[in-house]
Amino acid sequence: MTAGPTLLLAEDEPLMRERLLEMLPAVWPEARVVLVAENGNDAWDGFLALEPSVAILDIRMPGLSGLEVAARIGGRAHVVFVTAYDQHAVEAFDAGAVDYLLKPVQAERLLRAVERLRTRLASRPVDMAGIVRQLQAALPMPRPAPVKWLKAVVGRQIRLIDVDDVLFFQSDTKYTRVVLRDGEALVRMPLKDLLGGLDADRFWQVHRSTVVNVAAIVAAERLDAERLQLLLRGSTEKPVVSRAFTHLFRV
Description:
Largest sheet: 5 strands, parallel
Number of strands: 15
CATH architecture of the largest domain: 3-Layer(aba) Sandwich
CATH superfamily of the largest domain: Response regulator
Number of helices: 7
Shape: globular
CATH class of the largest domain: Alpha Beta
Strand order of the largest sheet: 2-1-3-4-5
Radius of gyration: 19 Å
């Protein structure tokens, strides 16, 4: 017997989240919700851990937005957006050939989205990166400026660190290890929370537990069929690139 599709549901509004969880079994009984997230950071972290085949993402969420999570997912899952934008703004979704659910979500509309997903599951997911760029240009989604400075613990000191000086970040339970050319420090914040404040063009997540400064990368070398390791300027450590992120280094 073939296992049914696995779903990630990310929605920060409790009533909307509960409504979707009630409606989904009725319109898609073979699907299994493997993760329910209340913010974009948990959605992305959960996606890396579980790799569901479908992600239903609210556009506006605390932390990473639904668009940002979709861009990071790329072509690894089928995506449906949940949005409160009016019909005029929804034209942007239609132009991007991406499915969406307009709040308040109605059962009939959810059923149509599920029918499309059933058809699409037989093919590879569309890479969302290009579509997300179109949507970000069309929709009013202001984002705070990227973090420039971090307060980090170094021995008995609290040190101010310019993010440009960071070679890579690495998850360390409830903290984040910050590796620099001249040493390392600890930030009192989980990596998944820190990630939303970094410039995604300058800092690439290469592993569930590692984010690297692109400017520090000298080369990527293959470890095996599914993994790479990175050579960095100013560090003898070689962060590993997991299978989910090797696409960043394809030529």
